[in-house]
Each structure stands twice: as structure tokens, then as C-alpha cells.
Amino acid sequence: SSYNINSRFTDGPLDSANARARKHFRDFDIDQSQPKQKRIRLKTQRRREQCRANQARYRLKQIDHAKWVKESVLKLRADIPVLELQRTALRHGGQQDVWNAVVKYLRIFRFGVLVTLPPADIEEANIADNSIENEETKQQLVFLRSTMTEDVNLGERTGVEALMDQWRQYSTSFQNLCLELIRMERTTDRFVSVTATLNMTVSEATLKTVFQHLEDRPLRSKLLGQHLQVPYSYLFRVGHRDMSTIACRGTG
Fold first, then answer.
1. Domain ranges (residues) in the chain
2. Please, which residues have CB within 8 angstroms of residue 151's CB and are 6 or more apart in sequence?
3. Domain 96-250 class in CATH
């Protein structure tokens, strides 16, 4: 019988080895490409997560900056009318003693009272700040005692301590407290009338102290962070040697 040379070289062991080698390299290429694609996908996912985190941090910074600007503008607005009154007082000299006392009262209480933290909440690094707050509060109380008589009237309560306690309650119950002067005028020789707005923000402390009986959780959440503007009026009576507040009431 005849011998087929082509069959010998085609079906021989060498050809089979070559085929197996080619298949092995194809499988190796596939195995190598899959981890590479997986690494690319992981890097892309991490990059997206990082971008989202950066965007979230940027938005928080923008919100904080906007809040700071709003609070700064509010404080500046409260300073302007007080400074204008001080300029008027300087222009008229010594005839404005009572006027000056009213202006000083509005100035030193325009942001309420600096409240002292309980000892358990004070860290070692904040002790100095806390002592400064105590000193400023003492100065406010000294001013009230030196310019107002003990019959200062707050409706149902009377006395300098009652007036100071009222400011403490405002300061502990609300955030961003700011007394904004609207108008100040001498109605008669013995009376000075002041119209103002008490700006404040509802906080967790407000819900605990002012709205402690409010149990509606959605309503409590809605109230939290709300900015309130309360119309406030003062009536100062002028004495011969001192200034006595006979009416100090908030309306609104």
C-alpha cells in the first residue's frame, strides 16, 4: 500500500504539541485580560466615589460659608443703628446722659448673654474662654445695677436680677440671638421709647425648654432651624440721677 507523507506531518506529535501550545497561549491571554479589565473597573468606581465625596464636602463648605455670611450680615445690621445713636450722642455732648445709657444697654445686650457651660462640658483648652464669658456677663450685670433702679418692671416680675435672668433664658433657649434696633425716640422729657426686633433661631434647646410639650415629631423637625423675628419694645423712664426701666415687654 502507498504511504501518505502529508498524513504523517499533519497528524504527528509535533503538530499536536504546536496546537496545544497555541491554545495555551490563547487561554493565557484571555486570563490576563480579565484581571486587567477588572482593575480598570475598580479604579473607575473608586474615582467616581471620590468625586462624589469631594462634591459633598464642597457643598457642605458652601452651606457653612453662606450661613456664616448670613450671621455676619445680621450682626452688622444690628451694629449700624447703635453706632448711629452713639454718633448722635457725641454730637450733643453731656445733655445725652440718659440717651447714652439706653444706647449702651442696646449695645451690650444686642447678642444676649454669654452663657457659662457646666463644668462637665468644659475641656481644659476652653477654660480661658469660659472665664472671659464669666467676666463679660459680670460686666453686663454691673451695668444694669449701676444704671437701673431695683423697681425695673418686666410685667409680672421686677428687679435687675429678673431682667438679667430673662436675657439668660433667651440666650440658652435660642441660637443666633440678635437684638436689632429699629427706632429710638424721646417721647417726653422723662420717657425714651425703643422699638426693636429680637432675631433668633430655633434649636434643640428651644424644643426642650420652650416647646417641651410639643410631641408631634414632624412639626418639631420642621421648627428646628427656623429663624424667628419677634417685635420687641422698651420704655425707659428717666429719673433725676438714674434711668429706670418701667416697661420691658416683647410682643409678637
1. 96-250
2. 158, 159, 244, 246
3. alpha beta
